[in-house]
Design a protein that fits this description.
The chain is an alpha/beta fold. The chain contains 9 helices and 12 strands. The protein has 2 domains: 5-71 and 98-181, Rossmann fold (3-Layer(aba) Sandwich), CATH 3.40.50.620; 191-307, 3-Layer(aba) Sandwich (Rossmann fold), CATH 3.40.50. Helix content is 37%, strand content 21%. Helix 1 (39-53) packs across helix 2 (82-118). The model is unreliable at 1-24, 156-163 and 287-292 (pLDDT under 50).
């Protein structure tokens, strides 16, 4: 096991834990850890991906600067006399809250590391940043092979499930594959790719063909629309590209609206992972824009891989 060392603070950040020599040049599975119910599943799926991709893990916790400012901004609020004293006391309370939140983040990262190590992954670094989640992920983009995040945010409950508030911004901004996971882990044994025959879709097929994560796993290539000879030819071309994975590949074309049709196919065939591209002009990619994104993410019960 490689000995880790403490990372020096970077501008605009608080504490980065345990860094390996030369890790800047190494692509990693980046797992976003927070206080949501999905955090244990994020660890488990990150460990699963790490094993199959033979890629080390970075555990990332981002402290929201709006909720926990490093230095409270009370400009324009401070009056004279007792009001000034009250503002000073409130500022001190904010500083204490931020300090406690940082410590809590350290504990969450430590627990996540312990969980992943029990799953057989030793090459792990921990990072804690203070600021915006999307900006933090963009700063790590050139080191990221796969990003793992929970589908649901910290505010979710059994009765009221919320999609992570920053999830759509991350999907639109980060140009790396994103594995979005539900609250419970289930080892993936099959996958389906929502395919539309576009150049972007073929790039997604090429990406999957070059990754060992789905190797040997049954894969369904599914198109939504009319069953035409052109679409069949596109599917066969994609199937040929995936030949090196040694997978049992099923080709399917289904008519109907994209979201319910894809979910119905997934349920019908008991498929564990749905893989799809994000954004563009095709029907499949357009349905990820706006309110449909929220609906699809909110109703998802199984992992979803977004390809950018």
């Amino acid at each position: 096991m490689t000995q880790a060392k403490e990372f020096t603070n970077e501008p605009g950040q608080n504490n980065n834990h345990n860094n390996h020599q030369g890790e800047v040049k190494m692509l990693r599975v980046v797992a976003c850890i927070d206080g949501s119910r999905a955090a244990p599943a994020v660890c488990d799926y990150a460990a699963w991906a790490s094993k199959h991709m033979e890629t080390p893990v970075t555990l990332l916790h981002v402290l929201d600067e709006e909720r926990y400012p490093m230095e409270p901004d009370l400009a324009g609020s401070i009056g004279l006399g007792s009001r000034e004293q009250l503002m000073d006391e409130l500022a001190e309370l904010d500083r204490k809250r931020s300090k406690l939140a940082l410590e809590h983040g350290h504990h969450m990262l430590d627990e996540a590391e312990d969980r992943i190590r029990t799953l057989g992954i030793d090459d792990i670094i921990k990072r804690q940043r203070h600021g915006d989640l999307t900006e933090s992920l963009l700063a790590l983009e050139n080191q990221t092979r796969l990003l793992v995040m929970g589908l649901h945010g910290e505010s979710s409950s059994d009765r009221d499930v919320h999609v992570g508030s920053q999830l759509e911004t991350v999907i639109r901004s980060v140009h790396r594959p994103i594995l979005l996971v539900p609250d419970e882990y289930q080892q993936p044994k099959s996958a389906m790719l929502a395919f539309d025959g576009s150049a972007t879709a073929f790039k997604g097929v090429e990406l999957l063909a070059g990754s060992p994560v789905l190797k040997g796993m049954p894969i369904h290539l599914v198109m939504i629309g009319a069953d035409t000879s052109d679409r069949r030819e596109q599917l066969r071309k994609a199937e040929k590209m995936l030949g090196g994975l040694g997978s049992d590949i099923t080709l399917a074309i289904r008519a109907g609206d994209v979201e319910p049709t894809l979910h119905a196919y997934q349920e019908e065939h008991d498929i564990d992972i749905l893989v799809m591209g994000a954004y563009g002009h095709s029907r499949i990619r357009q349905f990820l824009v706006g309110s449909t994104t929220t609906t699809m993410l909110k109703t998802a019960r199984k992992p979803l891989v977004i390809l950018r």
